[in-house]
Structure formats: C-alpha cells, structure tokens
What we know:
Number of strands: 17
CATH class of the largest domain: Alpha Beta
Number of domains: 2
Helix content: 25-40%
Distance between the termini: 47 Å
Strand order of the largest sheet: 16-15-14-13-7-12-11-8-17
Amino acid sequence: MTEKTRIAVVGTSWWAEGAHLPAIRAHTDLELVALCGRNAARLAEMAAKFGAPRTFTDYGQMLAEARPEVVLLLVPNYQHHPMTLAALDAGAHVICEKPLALTAAEAGEMLAHAERLQRRHLTFLTYRAMPGPRFIKQLIEQGYLGQLHHAQAAYLHESWLNPNRAASWKTSKATGGSGVLHDLGPHVLDMLQWWLGPVARAAGSLQTFIHERPKPDGARAAVETDDATACTLEFAAGGQATVQLSRVAPGRHNYQRIELYGSHGALVYEYEQSLAHVGRVSGAAAHSGEVQNIPIPPEMAAGFAGQDTFPAVFNELTRGFFASVRGGPSSAPSFIEGLAVQKVIDAVLRSAENGRWETV
Length: 360
C-alpha cells in the first residue's frame, strides 16, 4: 500500500473549510497532520470537523514539530512569500494559493528558493483543473483557433458591491497588493497565457468606486485597492486581448466569459455558478456562421457536475504535483506559472500608474 503524503494546512478561512479541507479529507493518498490558524476557537472547531490531530497558532512551531512533507498555504497575499520561504527551509514542498505573491520580485525569489532546495511547488490556479478551460486548451492544440487575432475576457463578481461589507486585508495595498486585479485577475491571466502563450506587454486602468468601508470597531477605513480593472494585452506570438475584472458587478456571481477569435475559428468559454465546475464551450469554424455549443467530452467532465465537486478540482490540479513529490517529474501550474501571472499583474499596475504600455 502506498504511504500517504503528510500535509499541513495553514489558514482557517471559508475557502479552507468549504473547499480545500473537504478535498484533502476525500483524498485517499493524503494525511492531514496539522492545521494552523490565528484564531484558537476557530482552529479548534475546524480541527474537530476535519480530523486534524494537531493544531498550531504559531507557524514556525508547526513546521518544527509537525514536520509536514507538504504545506498548503491558504493565507492572505502578503504572507505567501515569507511563509513559503520558511516552509521550503523546513524541508517541505509547497502548494500556495493564488496570487503567488504581492510582486514578481517576491514570486521570483520563491521560485528560485524552491528550485535551489529541490522542493516541488504548485500555484493553486483553480480553473486549470476545470473541464471547460481544459477542453479549450485541447481544441487550440488541435488547431481549431489557428493564429490568434484577438480575445475578450471578463471575470465579474458582485461580492464587494455592498458598501457595508467590512474592510479587510483585501482592501489594503500592503496586505493585498491590489484588489480585483490580484484576486480574480490571476485566473484569467493564467488561462490566457496557458492557452495563447506569454503576454509581451500590457496597458491597464484601475478604478475604486467604494472609497471607504467599515472596520469591526465601527470606524471607517480607506479602500486602497481597485474594485475594477480593465487592461489590454499583446501576446508574444501575436494577437491581443482586452480584459475586464470587477468585484462590483450587480447580478454576477463568479461569472467568466472568454471569447477567442483566430484565423481558423472562434472559441467561447463561459462559466457561472449554475454550470457547477464544468463550464460551457462553444465555437465556429471560419466562414461557418454563428458559434454553436461544442459538448465537453463526458470523460473530461466526469465528477465535476453537482454542488460538492471541489475534490475533483483539487485532484485534477494537484495530481501531477503529488506524483512529483513521490519522485515523478515536475508539473504545472507551478511557481513558474504563478510568476508568469505576477509579471503581467505588475505590468498592469505600472501602466495604470504611469499611463503608458509596459513590457511584461
């Protein structure tokens, strides 16, 4: 029988509780050895729910005493860099939630340190695992699109539309980096580069519509990060894309639509909550008329339909990583892909500040 990989989870957010911890519990080859969080009461509740044998409020102590083989970081953006370096130094391989870091410089240091110490690494870019984006990738590789001409991409949310939603680390530049650009942006930017190759240069605009939010003590806090981002990208292999990101879009809950137009045809990927984790794909060959639905192969969508399907997402995204931990080759999306996304984010931020195109 294969020995289970010993994993520790850092973070006790709703995302840990609703997605990652259930996925680990359902995984036959993983053993949850420790859970780490700042709030002792919340930590105890989560440990009891998911069967974590040891809990820690001190990250360094967890690394020293639990000695996990893999550390999964589900913590605010500003903690990704120092916690990753500490885990690598402690001998662990690292799975880090997106975005990989606050800046490309931080992400580059994380990648270099992992490679120097010969540790395996993964950036949790969720949508790479889902059937819709994987099917789009397959169709592009089969030549359905041809040479890219242009793309239109949108990722829309209404999650911050309520002005009474409390300020958090996501509304501070020091802890979040940026707002929707760092939050939803990595998914879209990664899918585009995964499908179409690296972005060569970018131009962007960031806007904040709700300038203050309440703090827990009743005081008001200034919002330093963006509610909406618009950017234009040019790809190294040719072609361009326009991207709209929003966390203040009424009526939208986790809505994505990416349209791709090339020399041989068009492809459209769409995702919304009602489509579970599968998504929808449509397309048209050049000169053939309107786009039509292209059924996602059943074997590609198996296990992803329904409400509680994040274990399927987790398994698909991490399969190669855990194989590499057990001696197999490196796999994507690693810190390499996380760094590639961060370079585009940095270029968009520079462009928004100086009003000109920026090289990635």
